[in-house]
Amino acid sequence: MGSLQQDASSYRDPAGFVYKDASGTVLRQVNQAGKNDYDLLMSSGLYKELADAGLLIPHKEITVSKSSKDAYKTLQPENIPFITYPYEWSFSQLKDAALLTLKIQEAALRHGMILKDASAYNVQFIGKQPVFIDTLSFAQYTPGEPWEGYRQFCEHFIAPLAVARYSTLESLKFLRSNLEGVSLELAASLLPKRARLNGGLLSHIFLHNASQKRYQNVASDKGVQAATKRQVSKFALDGLIGSLENTTKRLKPPHYHTEWGDYYTFTNYSEEGFTEKRTIIGKMLDSVKSQAKIAWDMGANNGEFSILAAERGLYTVAMDIDPLAVERDYRMEAKEQHQRLMLPVVQDCVNPSPDNGLLGQERQSLNKRGPADVVMALALIHHLAIGRNIPLSKIAEMFAGFGKYLIIEFVPKGDSKVDILLASRKDIFTDYNEEQMEQALSKHFKLLKKAPIKHTKRTLYLYEKTRA
Amino acid sequence: MFHSLYFAYLDPGTGSLLIQSLIGVIAGIFVFGRRSLTALKFALLRIFGKGKNDDTLKQDASSK
């Protein structure tokens, strides 16, 4: 590897690896071991078909001065503005990533290739568009060979989606601790008996798990011999892929038909107040947009205000703790030009994604993926200060860690949303007021603008971080 | 036959490999059942149907 800074998540596949060059550009080296498969990907027309359709990340081959001696080629893939992980996706994002993987598998088989794995981490989102990023996942297909990625597909996609389907969206948070997905065994034990009535789940989870258990302790010789003698015909392989596709398509978010109609309604302030809030945020964004590329909207709900940043050309990551809000945001029709600029993710800013995986480096914490140029915290502070007892000084410190500019809305006591929070508990928050918040923020930020929102009791602020 | 298996960097799981064929064939019949029957019909028509007119072709197909 020489002195190449290999990406900490790119160590599994001998065919190549991802690294960052001195300027921070993400590159992918194809090793000699991956030469034949890579050449076939390019010469078979598969790459062109997938890249043209926007399903596979496009790349160009480049010449680099420094590469390790087993290097065959170096690729520069199109940049992904903000990396996300499956444990940050909503139900439909995970489902779309699964369907993308199967679509790519079908295309690969048409071109005499096969996906050698089926990791959910091979998919990223550019805005709301899923894209397959692992150019080296493709291998030559030998008729009769089984799909080695079958179990991984079931554990990374089918199992978590099925468990969520029969419990709650919250269960997708398993994926933060289980980086290899939800095991078949765990899924089979969590799913209710009636899930067996679903033919797809019966096959891909329950029978699959039983077979896995049956053979896991067989002396490896016998098992491997049996497995390698067993041919999976093209008909069976197509059937398997088709069935996985049908099973995935049929999985719907839990309570799909009940909670969706009337989930999000702005009842808190008047139409005028709402319009006024939009106008002020728009002006604040206008004043910083020339120096900004990426915005993080913390507590974005369904992205109502994130869109204001996307409309100004900022790549906007709309984060919310509520998986249902993120689900709605993701499924909301956006104008085409914003579709690739708005990325909804599940994220609790008080318990953000940590460094995770091998050496604690494989999957980056939220903070390491920053800082953002603009941080938006609209109607959030009362949830943090009152809802979760976080001192204003800590809140200020947290925002300072997220980004450069901060657009923050103060929601005072007396506002109906705050009163709801205080209704069931003793008001111990004697220092929860504008002055205290301004003072806390002044330790990290310089105030650029303060604007009360007419027709409401709330105030909007624009801050710029002072040197860290 | 499957030497690629021995070089696979992902552990596919023995039980997982063994069940694939079974699930795949059954699923294939469900998923492609219609399509494969249609394909079969046309294949038979091509072999046996030459020179006959359309009506007999249809009868042939339904009787097979």
Question: In words, what does this structure look like?
Answer:
The complex is a heterodimer of chains A (about 475) and B (about 60). Chain A has about 475 residues and is of the alpha/beta class. Helix content of chain A is about 40%, strand content about 20%. Chain A has helices at about 35-45, 45-50, 90-110, 150-165, 175, 185-190, 200-215, 220-230, 235-250, 270-290, 305-310, 325-330, 335-340, 380-385, 390-400, 415-425, 435-440, and strands spanning about 5, 15-20, 25-30, 60, 70-75, 115, 125, 130, 140, 295-300, 315-320, 340-345, 370-375, 405-410, 445-450, 460-465. Chain A has a seven-stranded mixed sheet, with helices on both faces. In chain A, strands 1-2-3-5-4 form a five-stranded antiparallel sheet, with no helix packed on it. In chain A, strand 15 (about 445-450) and strand 16 form a beta hairpin. The two termini of chain A are about 35 Å apart. By secondary structure, chain B is mostly helical. Chain B is built from three helices and no strands. The model of chain B is unreliable at about 1-5 and about 50-64 (pLDDT under 50). Chains A and B meet through helix 4, helix 7, helix 8 and helix 9 of A and helix 2 of B.
